[in-house]
Design goal:
The protein has about 850 residues and is α+β, with helices and mostly antiparallel strands. Strand 6 and strand 7 form a beta hairpin. The longest helix has about 40 residues, at about 595-635. InterPro entries: HMG-box_WDHD1 (IPR055339), HMG_box_dom (IPR009071), HMG_box_dom_sf (IPR036910), WD40/YVTN_repeat-like_dom_sf (IPR015943), WD40_repeat_dom_sf (IPR036322), WD40_rpt (IPR001680), WD40_WDHD1_1st (IPR057646), WDHD1/CFT4_beta-prop_2nd (IPR022100).
């Protein structure tokens, strides 16, 4: 039947138009430069339905109730058909897309753009994309192979290419078309078509003929042409049965046959491995977007603009009291960023001229140097970064994790087991993710519990009380209205149990402008029968158990959240934290001489902290030694009655205190004098004291003889009270008090003793004083040595303090030193002081084996 042409009617304004049929063929869908898509029942339809999709529409495709359009805002959009309701954005380009098509089953679309790129996008999950690069000019048209193995494309560079979809390589390329620099200047838009169902032939319109190429061999089978064709035509469809098999060889010897271009790769290389997920920054949008979020977290937002007008970075804080908004130039092409209460961290990839850089803007520092930059070694790129409290981390392509202080000091470096996917930091914790499943985002919530979001929108939280397993706490897909809608998670809170996220209509990522609104979703565990009262109560109970376990973990580890502004020169103080106390004191003097008064103040505070820590450590060691000694005394002697067991009245205690006061003062002066001689200076040492309080009567049971009384005075023992033969009779610990004394008055009245700031002993002074002779004491002594058991059982206790011999128990080192003193002196005849002998003895004693040192310790016991 001869074809009849109906009269042409008005469809759109002047400019480019596109047309397609619906699945049933009952209506025609057109789009044009006026930005409207019109649905025509037939050519006589005077009132077609119109859908506005943008300022201009360049191409449209329809399949399975989805209308896909390429519009002038450089996006490929989806609308429902025939309602025309927007259903999201499938993909974006840097320029406008020229052609868009569906594959055979409508699960994928292909789009070609003026930026020379071709993309294949999954309609259901737009994050599943494949990009084909190779054209050197804008893409004119595309066509899917019916078997979804090949994709044909035509370009303004004059070539027609066939792409192998699975491995994204070019199978063949023909230089058939006339070259041009833009679509508007092309003489033909070169619409391509495959033979339906089988796809054996590919039809390509070239000038006034149509060339047909055979699949896989890519040889030109024959050309279609006629004398009545006066201008170039485009193929819109290749009908089944139009060509007969016996005509295949009619044009075998045609001069138009072109040589076969060898493919870049073999057609089949075996099964392809699953593509590895590339590193990403949590809270960021994809890199290919010209306007994107580099990070969005609970501190603020970092936006990146990379277009023809500007290449810059904007930093905005949720709480402006932390820092004001900042505008940065992106001349180094930073790709990843992180933001904390202390700093802004940026990183860039390496180029042929520049190395990969890590740039930190330390805005919380008050000094003049508020930023620092570190270059990575050659051939090492930064792939992921994160910030914590006082530190920064960068994972590189060399499988290394590099730690830095927030002031820029390089710290530990360790190897990663595999390529990094993402990192997150909170406080002193660092979470690193490697390749297994595809993770969409990861977080530390405000109470430092690790969480992550997968590509299906499920939020999972670490359950420390259940073997460090991951528990799903929210499914964002349940809150989406459309299939193409998603939620972009920006924050997770345990108290209240909420999820902060941004709803994305028809897309996975929000646009930068206008600023999107943040929505709040409540946590809900995926328990069964959640609609019933039983299921709701079960879900609430186990959710409360999980979060209660997190609070127990925080209480166990002593987490405290302090809000303070660090006002110090970070790098100097961070280096000083690694020094000894003596080196810190020298640093304080150097800072004072350099007129760095604030730095000197900070370093002096650090020196005081180190001194306090050292004093606390020594006090703990003394307490442990004293407790061990008392346990030995309790185990080695009987429970005979002592002076602590005797009844004593309060008035008698006061009288005894007054009577003993003078005796105490007479003993105090020679003791202090002796300490002054041992130390070699006029500095005094504090001696700890045990203040015994009033003792109850014996009929009230035994009491604790070591209990410290609240009384400020030290009552002395009654001289008239009956003493037992137990060694505890003479066990009274005198008070260590610092004093300045006069040697001329040692035998006279005791001087006034005023407490001074305690100074920690050096190790040499402590060791030297350990071997010095001490005056005999009864009530004011530091340690008590066991007396001879024979004397303790046979002789009566001596009441006079001057006749009681109080010696410190010997240690294993003392016994070893007494035996080897002659060897040390013979090897070192220049040693004249006891401290030198002790120091050399310590070195030799430490060189002994563990068994030998243990043997000497046992001998001392």
């Amino acid at each position: 039947m001869p074809a009849t042409q109906k009269p042409v009617r008005y469809g759109h304004t002047e400019g480019h138009t596109d047309v397609c049929f619906d699945d049933s063929g009952s209506c025609i869908v057109t789009c044009g430069s006026d930005g409207d898509v019109r649905i025509w029942e037939d050519l006589d339809d005077d009132d077609p339905k119109s859908i506005n999709v943008g300022e201009k529409a360049y191409s449209c495709a329809l399949k399975n109730g989805k209308l896909v359009t390429a519009v002038s805002n450089n996006t490929v959009q989806v609308h429902t058909f025939p309602e025309g309701v927007p259903d999201g954005i499938l993909t974006r380009f840097t320029t406008n897309a020229n052609h868009v098509i569906f594959n055979g089953d409508g699960t994928k679309i292909a789009a070609g753009s003026s930026d020379f790129l071709v993309k294949i996008v999954d309609v259901v999950d737009c994050s599943q994309q494949k990009t084909f690069r190779g054209h050197d000019a804008p893409v004119l048209s595309l066509s899917f192979d019916p078997k979804d193995i090949f994709l044909a494309s035509a370009s303004c560079d004059g070539s027609v290419r066939v792409w192998h979809i699975p491995d994204q390589t070019c199978a063949i390329s023909w230089p058939l078309l006339q070259k041009c620099n833009d679509v508007v200047n092309a003489k033909s838009i070169c619409r391509l078509a495959w033979q339906p169902k089988s796809g054996k032939l590919l039809a390509i319109p070239v000038e006034k003929s149509v060339k047909l190429y055979r699949r896989e061999t890519w040889s030109n089978q024959f050309d279609l042409s006629d004398s009545f064709i006066s201008q170039e035509k485009n193929v819109t469809m290749l009908k089944t049965g139009l060509l007969k098999e016996e005509e295949e060889d009619d044009q075998a010897g045609s001069s138009h046959n072109l040589p076969l271009v060898t493919s870049q790769r073999p057609f089949y290389d075996g099964p392809m491995p699953t593509p590895r997920q590339k590193p990403f920054q949590s809270g960021s949008t994809p890199l290919h977007l010209t306007h994107r979020f580099m990070v969005w977290n609970s501190i603020g937002i970092i936006r990146c603009y990379n277009d023809e007008q500007d290449n810059a970075i904007d930093v905005e804080f949720h709480d402006t009291s932390i820092h004001h908004a900042t505008h940065l130039s992106n001349s180094l092409n930073y790709t990843v960023a992180d933001l904390s209460h202390e700093a802004i961290l940026l990183a860039s990839e390496s180029t042929d001229e520049l190395a990969s850089k890590l740039h930190c803007l330390h805005f919380s520092s008050w000094d003049s140097s508020k930023e620092w930059m570190v270059d990575m070694p050659q051939h090492e790129d930064i792939e992921a970064i994160c910030l914590g409290q006082g530190w920064a981390a960068a994972a590189t392509s060399a499988l290394l994790l590099r730690l830095f202080s927030i002031g820029g000091v390089q710290k530990e470096i360790f190897s990663l087991p595999g390529p990094v996917v993402s990192m997150a930091g909170h406080g002193e914790q660092l979470l690193i993710v490697f390749h297994r499943g595809r993770i969409f985002s990861q977080f530390y919530n405000l109470t430092s519990t690790p969480c992550y979001v997968d590509s299906e929108g499920c939020v999972r939280m670490l359950n420390r009380a259940f073997g460090n397993t991951w528990t799903p706490v929210c499914n964002t897909r349940e809150h989406c209205k459309g299939k193409s809608d998603h939620y972009w998670v920006v924050g997770i809170h345990e108290h209240p149990q909420q999820l902060r996220c941004i709803p994305c209509k028809g897309s996975r990522f929000p646009p930068t402008l206008p600023r999107p609104a943040v929505a709040i979703l409540s946590f809900k565990l995926p328990y069964c029968q959640i609609a019933t009262e039983k299921g709701q109560m079960e879900e609430q109970f186990w959710r409360s158990v999980i979060f209660h376990n997190h609070l127990d973990y925080l209480a166990k580890n002593g987490y405290e959240y302090l809000s303070c502004k660090l006002e110090r020169e970070f790098r100097c103080v961070e280096l000083a934290e690694l020094m000894t106390q003596h080196a810190v004191n020298l640093a304080v003097k150097y800072a004072s001489r350099s007129r760095k008064l604030i730095l000197a103040q900070k370093l002096s505070e650090l020196a005081v902290e180190k001194a306090s820590e050292l004093a606390a450590t020594q006090a703990e060691e003394e307490e442990v030694e004293e407790e061990d000694f008392r346990k030995k005394l309790s185990a080695g002697y009987s429970n005979a009655a002592t002076e602590w067991d005797q009844p004593r009245l309060r008035n008698q205690t006061e009288e005894d205190t007054e009577s003993r006061k003078e005796a105490d003062d007479t003993q105090k002066t020679p003791e202090l004098h002796e300490h002054g001689q041992n130390s070699g200076s006029t500095d005094t040492f504090d001696v700890p004291a045990i203040k015994s309080g009033a003792v109850t009567s014996s009929n009230q049971g035994r009491i604790n003889p070591f209990k410290v009384s609240a009384s400020s005075k030290e009552p002395a023992m009654s001289v008239n009270s009956t003493r037992s033969t137990n060694i505890l009779d003479t066990m009274n610990k005198s008070s260590k008090k610092s004093t300045a004394f006069n040697r001329a008055t040692n035998n006279e009245k005791s001087p006034v003793i005023k407490p001074l700031i305690p100074k920690p002993k050096s190790k040499q002074a402590s060791a030297a004083s350990f071997f010095q002779k001490r005056p005999c004491q009864v009530e004011k002594t530091e340690e008590v040595k066991e007396e001879n058991p024979k004397n303790a059982s046979s002789e009566a206790p001596v009441l006079c303090p001057q006749n009681v011999e109080n010696q410190r128990p010997k240690t294993g080192f003392q016994m070893w030193l007494e035996e080897n003193r002659s060897n040390i002196l013979s090897d070192n005849p220049d040693f004249s002081e006891e401290a030198d002998i002790i120091k050399e003895g310590m070195i030799r004693f430490r060189a002994l084996s563990t068994e030998e040192r243990k043997a000497w310790t046992n001998k001392a016991k």
